[in-house]
Design goal:
The complex is a heterodimer. By secondary structure, chain A is mainly α. Chain A has 14 helices and no strands. Classes of the chains: A mainly alpha, B alpha+beta.
């Protein structure tokens, strides 16, 4: 187990280092002048030259890379060329909003996708299976921006402002029921402050973006669970359990699901990390002040310290979640040999 | 007996009930929060809500140089204020009450307003002016270069500041800049940009920061001890909200959730303007689009060819189709309504016959050459300008190659050797502080290595004329204005560039908002203090 962990950790580090190398060098070969960007909107030649020296852009590329790695190891992700803000501080500001959205949508995928998938698998070919099949195909095929607009139109327009259009909380709550940002997760911060008006407002604001972001993982989880259930339910031990007269609920959710959930977990892990970047578009549509809005601005400005830093952070999440999922799988299913 | 299967229907039913129950408990409170306009609640403060399309990347008053000007302009003040077009004077007193330049434009004396306090209680005086400008110069970010001429700041007494300059510059106009000219409390001398961007401020303005959620909104609250005083009806709080999605902004202004917004789809403006609750305001913006001709590379080094090309652009069609009519053809490089602009200045129009005869005079009776036009990738307005122009040029046997490039790459190419650079460089220009010199100098003054004179127009007489006008503008604004107008005329006569259009500034406001005057010198800034409902 320990060797397995070590090996996975080494692999993870290797992935992160490779990603850092690739993004760093790709960013440097993009035709643009970072010194001019750093020097501001209307720089003079002197300002550009000063910026080039200050950023050490006249140094060889490998030197720049080693300096970059050294800074990261010291916990310094660098500063944005555009805003001159410390990137780490910016990420701390914007990441919680994105994580809150991604966690909410993953939870939604688990809560809806797994039970419905189990039931669809239990009666495969039945009406639930057929309906969810169509809905899932639709769910993975709808473009996010289209779905977001339709949801906004329906829930704000047709249903007369049942759900708000954008933002994490309404202006009125920010004005008259504000709460301190402790964790950056509004659903938690509002509870910590005991401010239930703000909490309800935050819940109401997160529903539409979560639904938009969750459509893909729900569909995926549902179909994966269903497929695995169909397979597992044809196993002999299930027949044996049925023969013993065990309650159907136990058979489905205790004996079958435990084995069937393994591939679903892998998919969930991947989709969590995938949602981190998928959230970027959703954030723009719902004016959700997360990492997505932050990084799209950076991309438009060719602000590559920010682009590289965010890429690294997302990679870190991807790698750690995969590792985490692998370990959970091993606990759930002893047949998965940790090698 | 076989136990009753756990039916799918039951689960769905349970889920539905659970969801509906959630909905029932939470819905009323939030619906209330969403639908109730802030004014509907008695005894609550008057709130102004402004919906912007972009975030506020930097609210440090020394380095801010983006749409964060919308925030700083309500918190900080400058020594002078540039007046909206149509005003009697170019400038109004703000924190300075009067100012004077020496005849050579090298020494400027400003007298300051008495009795002004910063939000932190520190009195505003000459030391604060010196501190503010020196902090901005030291940090040297954003638009700090506007103070480049200032050599030394003297403070003979608490309410007098003397600036000694290295070269003549219109310091009164510079002091009115919406960037890098804000007065900052000396108490923040140890604070850096991170402190400001955490939501702190140090201004004298009518509003202070109450809370800041980066990327989402800034809430401002009124500064009770503001030197201008407060009248009934003014706003107690101002919400500057970031709403990136264009349709959401439209929904917000139409529903009254926002009082002021910008950048809505132009094709919707006509229908939006018909609604009684909403007004669409169209004003000139101090921003112009040019197509800089490469004056150093054949065939555009030939003035006749440049003139001919100036007669080939379909100005009217372009403005009506691509700009939906929300722009005006430029009279030279200085935008309409600005000090130095000249509504009588000659405009080239679409005239293929004239173009053909000019081309014949230049030795290109049937065209027969290719030109490359670069523009910023993703800018659909520039792209459409190129495509419409391309069709007109094709009729004269000239091939126009459209080359979209990332701005950085486009600029890099243009800064290189003019002979290998583009033939036509399309871009927008707007001033940092409002002076015609900004347009004339940056885009057309001789440069050793090209920076923004990307048409490589070199004309010593023109250089002298604008430099002299700039020196003179401190002591004789009227005479300087005529000189600026003459300089702009030279550019049109030389066909130094294609002068395409002046941008319009389009803002959408609620009809019950009183006192709003658009001021293009402070682009997209809402001075909340001037408004009431």
């Amino acid at each position: 187990m320990l060797i397995y962990l070590l090996r996975r950790l080494l692999l993870a580090i290797l992935v992160i280092v490779s990603v850092s190398v690739v993004t760093f060098f790709v960013a440097r070969v993009i035709p643009s002048d970072p010194a001019a960007l750093y020097a501001g909107q209307r720089p003079t030649s002197d300002q550009i030259a000063a910026a080039r020296e200050r950023l050490e852009l006249d140094q060889p590329l490998y030197n720049q890379y080693f300096r970059f790695v050294r800074d990261i190891l010291k916990g310094d992700l660098g500063t944005s060329y555009k805003t001159k803000h410390a990137i780490l501080a910016d990420i701390k500001t914007f990441l919680p909003a994105t994580l809150e959205l991604v966690i909410a949508s993953t939870l939604m995928a688990i809560i809806i996708g797994i039970p419905v998938g189990v039931l669809a698998g239990a009666k495969h070919g039945g009406w639930l299976d057929q309906t969810t099949r169509i809905l899932s195909i639709a769910g993975v095929s709808f473009p996010t921006f289209w779905l977001a607009l339709v949801l906004q139109l329906f829930f704000f327009g047709t249903l007369h402002r049942l759900f708000p259009l954008s933002s994490r909380i309404s202006n009125n709550v920010a004005l008259f029921n504000s709460f301190p940002a402790v964790t950056g997760f509004y659903l938690i911060d509002t509870l910590l402050a005991g401010n239930f008006i703000a909490w309800r407002d935050a819940v109401w604001h997160i529903i539409l973006p979560t639904l938009t972001l969750a459509t893909y993982p729900i569909s995926l989880t549902l179909r994966m669970t269903r497929a695995a259930m169909v397979e597992t339910l044809s196993e002999k031990y299930i027949t044996a359990a049925r023969a013993q007269g065990l309650p159907e609920r136990d058979i489905l959710f205790r004996y079958a699901l435990k084995n069937a959930i393994v591939p679903t977990l892998t998919v969930l892990g991947l989709s969590f990390a995938y949602s981190l970047t998928g959230a970027f578009l959703v954030e723009v549509i719902f004016s959700w002040p997360g990492l997505g809005k932050y990084v799209t601005d950076a991309i438009f400005n060719v602000d590559f310290p920010v682009i590289v830093a965010v890429t690294l952070i997302v990679t870190l999440f991807f790698v750690s979640i995969n590792l985490f999922v692998d370990i959970i799988q091993a606990f759930l299913d002893p047949r998965v040999v940790l090698r | 007996m076989k136990p009753k299967p756990f039916s799918a229907l039951n689960i769905l039913l349970a889920l539905t009930i659970a969801l509906t129950a959630c909905g029932k408990t939470a819905a009323p409170a939030t619906q209330q929060a969403v639908t109730e306009a802030p004014t509907a609640v008695p005894a609550q403060p008057a709130v102004l809500t402004i919906a912007y399309a972009n975030t506020f990347p930097d609210i440090d008053p020394s380095t801010s140089f983006s749409n964060d000007g919308a925030v700083t302009a309500n918190i900080y003040e400058t020594l002078t204020r540039y007046n909206a077009p149509g005003s009697k004077d170019v400038l109004s007193p703000q924190l300075a009450t009067s100012w004077k330049a020496s005849p050579d434009g090298l020494v400027w004396t400003f007298h300051l307003r008495d009795g002004v306090k910063f939000h932190d209680g520190v009195p505003f005086n000459s030391a604060a002016v010196k501190f503010s400008i020196e902090r901005t110069k030291t940090l040297n970010g954003g638009a700090a270069w506007i103070w480049g001429s200032v050599n030394n700041i003297e403070t003979p007494d608490d309410y007098t500041v003397i600036f000694r300059l290295d070269y003549a510059a219109p310091l009164d106009l510079i002091a009115s800049s919406g960037f890098a000219a804000w007065m900052i409390s000396p108490s923040v001398k140890d604070k850096d940009g991170a402190w400001f961007n955490a939501g702190h401020d140090a201004g004298t303005g009518p509003y202070m920061i109450e809370s800041y959620a980066p990327g989402a909104r800034i809430i401002l609250t009124k500064f009770d001890k503001y030197w201008g005083g407060w009248k009934a009806g003014q706003f107690d709080k101002v919400v500057l909200e970031v709403v990136e999605d264009i349709t959401v902004r439209q929904q917000k202004i139409e529903s009254g959730e926002a009082d002021w917004t910008l950048q809505l789809p132009t094709e919707n403006l006509a229908s939006i303007g018909k609604k009684p609750d909403v007004k669409v305001l169209i004003n000139p913006a101090f921003e112009t689009m040019v197509g800089l001709f490469n004056n150093k590379k054949p065939p555009l080094d030939n003035q006749k060819v440049r003139e001919a090309l100036s007669y080939t652009f379909p100005y009217d069609t372009f403005i009506q189709t691509s700009m939906s009519g929300y722009a005006t053809q430029a009279h030279g490089t200085i935008p309409a309504g600005m000090y130095g602009s000249d509504p009588s200045l000659f405009q080239y129009g679409l005239d293929p016959d004239k173009a053909k005869s000019l081309l014949a005079e230049a030795g290109y009776p049937d065209g027969g050459f290719e030109l490359t036009m670069t523009y910023a990738t993703g800018d659909s307005v520039e792209q459409q300008a190129g495509e419409l122009w391309k069709a007109e040029l094709a009729k004269l046997g000239i091939t126009l190659n459209l080359q979209p490039m990332a701005w950085e790459a486009q600029w890099d190419l243009a800064k290189g050797d003019p002979v290998n650079a583009q033939d036509i460089f399309v871009m927008y220009w707007w001033p940092t502080y409002t002076t015609p010199y900004d347009f004339l100098f940056n885009m057309f003054h001789t440069e050793e290595t090209p920076l923004f004179n990307l048409g490589y127009y070199f004309n010593a007489n023109f250089d002298k004329l604008i430099d002299d006008a700039n020196t003179l503008s401190g002591s004789d604004k009227a005479k300087a204005e005529t000189m600026f107008q003459n300089a702009a005329k030279i550019l049109v006569e030389d066909a130094a560039s294609l002068f395409i259009f002046d941008q319009s500034s389009i803002h959408i406001i609620r009809s019950d908002l009183k006192g709003y005057v658009d001021n293009p010198a402070y682009s997209h800034v809402v001075f909340a203090y001037e408004l009431s409902r």
